[in-house]
Amino acid sequence: MATYITELDVSTDPAEEQHLQSNGFKKININLNQGAGGKAIYLWYKNGPAKPITRVQFTFTDGMASGLIEAGYKKIDKNLNAGTRGDVTHLWYFRGSGEFHTPIVKIDFTTDAEGEAEKFKDDWEKSACNLNRHAGGNLIFAWVKREKQTYICNVSATASYGSDASFYGNGYIRVDENTNRSAGGANVFIWYRQTTDPKRALTDLNISTNDIEYQTLQQQGYTSVSVNLNEKTRGPPVYLWHNNDDGAKPIQAMSLLLNTHAVQVYKKAGVSVIERNLNTGNAGSTEFLCFYRSKA
Q: Most CB atoms closer than 10 Å: which of 170, 189, 249, 296?
């Protein structure tokens, strides 16, 4: 019988560590405040044959939490940036079922670009939320591995929080970084849904940042997501595009890359990085979409 991750918790001091250990939790020995000062913060988990956790999401604004609350996600009410100047960040999880929910069997963290690249190659999924967001220190990202291999079958985007609960209820995962980061404008997030059937998977993603790129992708048979990823900024419209070619390898994982120094490291590992800035034409952070195709 498969062993799933069934419970998660966070420690922010030695007393909490001792309590969790005495209650059968296992510690992931990576300080989630690494390099940023503040408290030593660790994630703990239990695994077993009980109902598995299928979703892990992060929030760094109150608005991001509203849809999670409505959808029944459980919040670990401990700030992952405690003791730093960084954004108040929380982990949420959910035990789902059905075709778009595949149990999580492992969770881990990376603290550098080389580690991130290796995780993609080993079939892990990356959260886009840097757990040291605005805190300085290492770029720390959470990763999950599932009971079965999954593939990206749908992508979408939202420019407000009003439909978040509906997206969660329909099996979508939010990419937990605002595509308008530091740009002002709307709170825009990309979403995706997974399948275990590679025949239903998307095989390519792309970005348009001007009319020529838009028309070219349209002529090549790509389908666009209707939401402008640059919504209400000074920049031009930016759109996410997807395609499904029967002869191409399916996409396993997707995320955002804000560390431009990691682009070549990612590419060397076989990760596709679309070097078209989602914040084109504004003063926001440089953000690239990245994805990893199946090796099979």
A: 189
